[in-house]
Amino acid sequence: MHKISNSVTKKDHDEKVSGSVKYVGDYPQIGMLHGKLIRSSYAHARILGVQTPELPEGYFLVDHRDIAGENIVHVVQDDSPAYADGEVHYRGEPIAMLVGPNEEETTRYARLTEVTYEVLPAILDVEESETVFFDYHYERGEMEQAFSDADQIFEEVFYTGYQEQVYLETQGMIAEYKEGHVTVRGSLQCPYYVHGAVAKVLGLTPDKVRIVQETTGGGFGGKEAFPSFLAAQTAVAAVKAQGKPVRVVFDRREDMEFTSKRHPSKSTYKVAVKDGKVTAMDIDVIFNAGAFTTLSPVVLQRGIIAAPGVYNVPNVNVRGRAVRTHTVPTGAYRGFGAPQTFFAVERMMDHIAKALDVDTLTFKRAHLVKQGDQTSTSGIYHYPVPLPAMIDDVLDRSGYLKKRKNYEKAGIERDRHGIGLSLWFHGAGFTGSGERDFIKAKVALQKTADGKVEILASNSDIGQGIKTTFAKIVASELSIPYEEIRISNPDTSRVPDSGPTVASRSLMIVGELLRRAAIHLRSEWREGEAQRVEEHFVEPEFMIPFRLDDFHGDAYPTYAWGVAAVEVKVDALTGVNEVVGCWSAFDVGTPIDLNVVVGQMEGGVLQGLGYASMEQMNYDKDGRIRNNSLSDYLIPTAMDVSHLDVQMHIEEYPYGPYGAKGAGELPLVGIPAAYVAAMEQAVSFPFSHIPLTAEETLVALSGQSAREAQKT
Amino acid sequence: MKNEIRFFLNEKEVVYTGSATARLLDVLRNEFELTGVKCGCKEGECGACCVLLNDQLVNSCMVAMGFVDGGIVVTIEGYRKTNQFRVLDKAFATTAAVQCGYCIPGMILAAESILSRNPHPTAETIREGISGNLCRCTGYNAIVKAIEIAANEGEGLW
């Protein structure tokens, strides 16, 4: 292993372990106003009027009429208002904000504010949606021929549910407006996304907007696009507050119910098999985008590109649609569309193997992609695919083969056992040409006259350890002790735009820019002088340019790889199960810090197990999310999975720093498929959806289709 | 009736004169500015607001001030001055158990609660002991490992 992988004490360790670091909600309230959003009570309605109770001095209402710029929060497109104007499109959509000096009183006045509505029909079922926000399609090979030549054709539909990020710190923002300049400080992943959004809503030029990331208590995608909304809403209130800062911190229920979460999905797979091999996949993916487009186009792109899985399928036809419903807009969550399709394709392959009466792992191995093969979008796997060695490693540690054989005999005892395995990749960095065409990342290193070096980049440490890994890279190139490298939370008045903290890109892309900047600084180092060096992103030359109009080319420069085996024990009387163990292998290239990377892997695996099993969120016939608290939406505790065994494999990527690739999202992506495969073996019932809960397990044990039972 | 609640907070005797039904969490954060006590859910589910009350680990959002009268409260701000904290601090650093950090003050006090009852806990005991403290980042392995290391390193402290 590279010596840079040796773990260090994290940059942010001391201030966090001692409880001394301040998050947004921790700053004293003195002199600050409190903001409480007033939200729509209906999924779809016309707003007839908003009437506050009589407000004492110092309390006021903010709504769309207070917006000096455009009432549009820019994400990818421009369809989402900061404050609803005339019509609301989901239950919980912000209509106004009540602002005042006392938190309890502000909340009370917000509750007493009456909104009158004319209720309009709401579309809540994706199948009934009349608005397709995005409709993508790509094709490779000869589909018709493959299906007409097929020995057998298999068809199945797969469903996945919502997943809520449940970062431990809820969304929060503080905005202050003084002398024509606005400063917004908040819990966020992407300072420059927020910067652009706030400037547009306030109608200010970029130089008058300053965004500062405060220490952020987790993100997982939930603080990618959403903070642009809260920042814009709070900034509008700050303008009206005339110099007093306004703070909004969500309570847990508000956060769970009204912030973006993972897209529920429906994926239909039709697969042609000839001579025991998959020859074609015809795939149709539908994501529930909610009421506005937000990040759905890019989530859907990643989802459909991953849809054929890690398999070399000569003929593929993939269609993906993100459709509108009158529900909370869905958005980024670790994995970004890929967990949905990887769940589907892995279950599909397992089910085909079963139908063909062949061992599922043997079947999958016979289809694995390898270096030099074409990707689903006619790009190339430019670098080695270490899956075979990783599979062997997981088999070895988990005892999969023996257990799989033993558990195959359908149990009659109360305890039923099962083990399942899944294989996946995660495309490292932005999908397609985003890095080259839109982000154009820049970084800088600032050296003081006394030789102190500071990292200037816009990527935020949201717990993933980017301060630590960035500092290690720069320290290593400059031969300066790691402890002496300075890095603060990004502030747009000080750091260049090195892009957002998303897509497992920060370390691979921005880390490499910092490494090059450090080499640059080293070569020009002048004692006793202040110096500044900058680096800009350049796309690697080997890339086959990606075209979005027909999904053609290299969607990603390289891939991170994952293999996992999950073993379960199911109580046939209660349906309750225990995850006996989860053994996984990951290749994210060179770990820049082994502790940091393993921490990402373990955390991601557990989120994947939660997604697959206990994390259930639904809305009712009025479009109201029913699971808006940690009592109704369960996430794994320390007791849920006690044996979680992660092993790293290293396939270096020459364009990443010291061979590093994207890491953060990978571990979650393929876990649900392995979990459900294990459940399927334990219960002897074919499952095609997640979350697969204890209740549904019990229904399946009784022989009924779980999905049918849920409907009744 | 005199509405005065006296208690020991991080080894100092303090007086609180507000409502006896106020939440300990709010009083600690707002009156005493002890913001190391985090608010994660305010319904006793997440453990981010854990403090020690009379040596018991409690969710401070679920404790009414009236209940605190005459009691001894320790928050992370007080606990971080102890030798036990120094051992836990180092162990958490060794395994990089601190990611976003929001659960950590509660988690550290949960670790103290475990170790003060059982200086040499099994991994299973540790998992049970922190099961009221949610962490969304780590998958818990690094935290369990850190508490095991602290148990070994802190010989005689607990």
Return the string of H and E elements of chain B: EEHEEEHHHHH
Q: How would you classify the quaternary structure?
A: heterodimer
Biggest sheet statistics of chain A: 7 strands, mixed
Q: Terminal Cα separation of chain B, in Å?
A: 42 Å
What's the structural domain tally of chain B? Answer: 2
Query: Which geometry of chain A do the CA atoms define?
Result: globular
Give an account of the 3D structure.
The complex is a heterodimer of chains A (712) and B (158). With 712 residues, chain A is α+β, with helices and mostly antiparallel strands. Chain A folds into three domains: 24-122 and 165-258, Aldehyde Oxidoreductase, domain 3 (Alpha-Beta Complex); 353-431 and 553-711, Aldehyde oxidase/xanthine dehydrogenase, molybdopterin binding domain (Aldehyde Oxidoreductase, domain 4, 2-Layer Sandwich), CATH 3.30.365; 434-536, 2-Layer Sandwich (Aldehyde Oxidoreductase, domain 4), CATH 3.30.365. In chain A, 28% of the residues lie in helices and 24% in strands. Chain A has 19 helices and 23 strands. In chain A, helix 4 links the parallel strand 10 and strand 11 (209-213). In chain A, helix 13 runs parallel beside helix 14. Chain A is globular, with a radius of gyration of 25 Å. The model of chain A is unreliable at 705-709 (pLDDT under 50). By secondary structure, chain B is α+β, with helices and mostly antiparallel strands. Chain B folds into two domains: 5-75, Ubiquitin-like (UB roll), CATH 3.10.20; 82-153, [2Fe-2S]-binding domain (DNA polymerase, domain 1, Orthogonal Bundle). In chain B, 37% of the residues lie in helices and 13% in strands. Chain B contains six helices and five strands. Chain B has helices at 24-31, 76-79, 83-94, 104-117, 123-129, 141-153; strands at residues 5-9, 12-16, 50-53, 56-59, 72-74. Chain B has a five-stranded mixed sheet. Chain B is globular and about 45 Å long. The termini of chain B are far apart. At the A-B interface, helix 1 and helix 15 of A face helix 3, helix 4, helix 5 and helix 6 of B.
